[in-house]
Amino acid sequence: MSIDSLRDALPDYAWDQKRNLDAIAAERLLSEQQKWGALLACAYATENGALIQHMERAAGSALSDKARHAAKLAATLMAMNTVYYGALDLLRNHDYRGPRVDLSMTALQQTDVDKIDFELWAFAISAMSNCGACLNVHEAELHKRGVTIERVLAALRIAATVNAIDTASRIENAAGGASREQPQA
Fold first, then answer.
1. Tens of pLDDT along 10-38?
2. Domains along the chain?
3. Are 34 and 120 in contact (CB under 8 A)?
4. CA 72 to chain CA mean position, Å
5. Alpha carbon 126 to its chain's center
6. Residue 130 backbone class (left: φ over 0; alpha: ψ -120 to 50; beta: rest)
7. Which of 4, 7, 73, 74 is surrounded by the fewest CB atoms within 10 Å?
8. CA dihedral 23, 28, 32, 36 (to 10 degrees)
9. For residue 14, what are the CA distances in angstroms to 10, 20, 95, 137?
10. pTM of the predicted model, to two decimals?
11. Does residue 42 have an active-site annotation?
12. Which member of 24, 39, 113, 131 is catalytic?
């Protein structure tokens, strides 16, 4: 199934996100696995069941079962890390940064997908969570591995678009689907 069903499910006022989905689907800076893995990992990070189902169907055969598993790993790991490291980053008292973390993070060593792919997905989720500490760690890892700024920005566009689609979905759910309107020109 294509991304068309997700785009068509968006309300009229989310016309920018419809365009953004089309642009992402046509994206060639990222491999198909990087692109669809980022889309799926970001959807998992939203906790939006309908969005997750749409994205799982849209990803179709672009992702192996191992890549889908790795996208789930990225989403769950970053759910933990963005809270922990995001909080440490916000705390004025830097004494909290010294002690051992004592949280398991073996998923960072997963081998189901290429390390660059996993880092792109973790970076995108970090952006959705507004965790500066995590963003900087994953960007540095991508930079170290030779990933271009353009490719990192492509992952960031995916995160921004998925986040906006999630917002439109939550608006529709809160309004009972009654908030559909025509886009402004």
1. 999 999 999 999 999 999 999 999 999 99
2. 4-91+110-174 (1.20.1290.10)
3. yes
4. 11
5. 8
6. left
7. 4
8. -30
9. 6, 10, 44, 32
10. 0.90
11. no
12. 131
